[in-house]
From TrEMBL:
Site feature location: Participates in a stacking interaction with the thymidine ring of dTDP-4-oxo-6-deoxyglucose: 138
Involved pathway(s): Carbohydrate biosynthesis; dTDP-L-rhamnose biosynthesis
Protein name: dTDP-4-dehydrorhamnose 3,5-epimerase
Family the entry assigns: Belongs to the dTDP-4-dehydrorhamnose 3,5-epimerase family.
Top-level taxon of the source organism: Bacteria
Pfam families: dTDP_sugar_isom
Name of the top EC class for this enzyme: isomerase
Species whose genome carries this gene: Mucisphaera calidilacus
Organism lineage string: Bacteria, Pseudomonadati, Planctomycetota, Phycisphaerae, Phycisphaerales
């Protein structure tokens, strides 16, 4: 399992070792001790699984606020996404900046998104299945987010002018300027 840094310290790319043979492949898709060696020691309490039928489906940008903030460990088992994590920790040197990584089953890459980040993804293929672990349970009263296309964030979702498929909730999220982030950078 390789654990790679990204442009934002703390956001990590995980590359599980894949063993291929005539039957297919085997991999350890999650290993608590190996992640802990790299400083990722969240206690994941819930697994989520979503299917997005159409390419160009965009879910995000989301987070849960304290006391139910979530770290996430995300991956794709069918299709392909561009996955995005935005630093929402006040005082962080990378506040407002983002990491964008393509995830697909072939590479088996995962993204670790720490607490304090907004998270979202756009599907690049139809019938994309997205699986992730979260470190706190779903708490709808803490569920919030920011518009994916906020100009201050400047995220290139690769939509090239096309309108994404969005939930009603995501079409009504606030701007980055109006997002009163509850997260602070702890250095
Ligand atoms: C996230 C979530 C939703 N739900 C329910 C609420 C709702 O009726 C239905 C669909 O919820 P949403 O529209 O919020 O699902 P979705 O837009 O897929 O939300 C997810 O987006 C990605 C980008 C994330 O980072 C996740 O943390 C989560 O916010 O599922 C749960 O029961 N548990 C959960 O943990």
């Amino acid at each position: 399992m390789n654990i790679l840094e990204t442009d934002i310290p703390g956001v990590r790319i995980i590359e599980p070792r894949k063993f291929g043979d005539h039957r297919g492949f085997f991999m350890e898709s999650y290993s608590a001790p190996r992640l802990a060696e790299a400083g990722i020691d969240d206690h994941f309490v819930q697994d989520n699984h979503s299917l997005s039928a159409a390419a160009g489906t965009l879910r995000g940008l989301h987070c849960q606020t304290p006391p139910h903030a979530q770290a996430k460990l995300v991956r794709v088992t069918r299709g392909r996404v561009l996955d995005v994590a935005v630093d929402a920790r006040r005082g962080s040197p990378t506040f407002g900046r983002h990491v964008a990584v393509e995830l697909d089953p072939e590479s088996a890459r995962q993204l670790y998104v720490p607490v304090g980040f907004l998270h979202g993804f756009v599907t690049l293929e139809p019938d994309t299945e997205f699986l992730y672990k979260v470190s706190d349970c779903y708490a709808p009263e803490c569920d919030t987010g920011v518009r994916f296309d906020d100009p201050d964030l400047g995220i290139d979702w690769g939509l090239n002018g096309r309108e994404p498929v969005l939930s009603e909730k995501d079409s009504q999220l606030v701007s980055w300027a109006d997002f009163d982030s509850p997260f602070t950078w702890e250095g």
